[in-house]
Design a protein that fits this description.
single chain, two-stranded antiparallel sheet, 15% strand, disordered N terminus, SERAC1, AB_hydrolase_fold
Length: 224
């Protein structure tokens, strides 16, 4: 599969079937990328070369996730998350979450209307049956400061092209992060019997500093 670079504009893209098509599908899987990431590259790996790239998207490749859950409609949500460079944008995690819920509600309403069975009092949270987190810093980036990332970005971009606000939520003890965690726990604990949750993170050193360009700084896991 050749990677198709889509617009960075916020969108919910269906990868395994046309939007609104639920034939034979009784599960919706929605993949959401992280900070400073591309909505397609996040889930893909280049099996080719730099000059002749061959991107494999595990959300879409027939022998990967679609084969494991053939009854699922797989979607990916994209939003503007770049915090450095000419296209940098400053926004909070809460605002991103609100917009994600909005597009999910719109998609759900479209499907329900198609079956003429829309329940206006339905709550999208009650429909969640599983959550998978990949390297999610619930309590901040333990063992890693955002300062080296900002310093690395400053060596390659102008000051006005660097937005540090989105990074604040990665700091340990951040008030917004703690509020989000408290809200999440208050929602998820009463639903533990109906909602399964799994968290994954890397144990090998990662060149996280390299996300801003040539600057490299290896760090071990600090995202648990």
């Amino acid at each position: 599969m050749v990677m198709i670079i889509l617009s960075s504009v916020e969108s919910l893209e269906s990868l395994t079937s046309a939007a609104g098509n639920t034939d034979g599908k009784d599960i919706d899987i929605v993949a959401v990328h992280g900070l400073g990431a591309h909505p397609d590259e996040t889930w893909s790996k280049n099996r080719g070369t730099k000059d002749n790239p061959q991107w494999i998207n595990w959300l879409q490749e027939e022998g990967m996730l679609p084969a494991e859950v053939p009854n699922a409609r797989i979607m990916r949500y994209g939003y503007k998350s770049t915090w450095f460079g000419p296209d940098s944008i400053g926004q909070s995690a809460r605002n991103v979450a609100k917009r994600l819920l909005h597009v999910l509600e719109q998609e759900r309403e479209a499907v329900c209307e198609m079956y003429q069975a829309r329940d206006k009092s339905s709550d999208i949270f009650n429909a969640v049956r599983g959550l998978v987190f990949f390297g999610t810093p619930f309590r901040g980036a333990v063992g890693m400061s955002v300062s080296p990332m900002v310093q690395a970005a400053a060596q390659e971009y102008e000051k006005e092209d660097i937005e540090t606000k989105p990074l604040e939520v990665l700091e340990q003890g951040n008030e917004l992060l703690q509020t989000l965690l408290d809200d999440f726990q208050a929602w998820v604990w009463p639903k533990m019997l109906q909602t399964q949750m799994a968290c994954f993170y890397e144990l090998q050193a990662s060149e996280i500093g390299g996300i801003v360009g040539r600057q490299r700084r290896k760090v071990t896991n600090g995202l648990g």
